[in-house]
Amino acid sequence: MAYKIIGSTCSGCSACDPECPNDAIREKSGVFIIDPAKCTECEGHFDTPQCVAVCPVDGCIVKA
Hints:
Helix content is 8%, strand content 22%. By secondary structure, it is mainly β. It has a single domain, classed as Alpha-Beta Plaits (2-Layer Sandwich).
């Protein structure tokens, strides 16, 4: 599985981008997206997905 960012709720704050250990997050047109091919839900790195942990918008990042 992978996570995805709901574009309509993303504030573009960039808090998630530097937290991803797999460089799966990038900015596109002012919002951030997660590359599902690179997202491992932080398994092997952290106990919880770091993008979800740091996102200031509830429900912005969800399981795809």
